[in-house]
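Before our next group meeting I need something from you. Please put the record directly below this note.
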Amino acid sequence: MRKSIALALAVPLAASPLLVVGPASAQSTVKEVKLENSIRRGFKQQAGKSVTVNCPSKVTWVKGKIFYCKAKAGDGTKYRVQVKLGNEAAGNLRWKVVA
């Protein structure tokens, strides 16, 4: 049985942006490891749970784009985490647990 958990976080990380910038002709991508760490910290701070997180790699940064990560708690509970990309220059995004 899934336990209900309500977590959400807006992540403006100007000092440590969640994007990788390539050549001028290439598009930026989300830094997968930094995003996963951010979600892990959010779970720990907001719900007191330690989780492992797996996000897709090489996600192209497009404002408004939505994609999903998976999180799993030590007790086996699985969560689906929705990530919505915001302002690329500031590295802003929002994530929330949706299932």
About this structure: The first helix runs from residue 32 to 47.
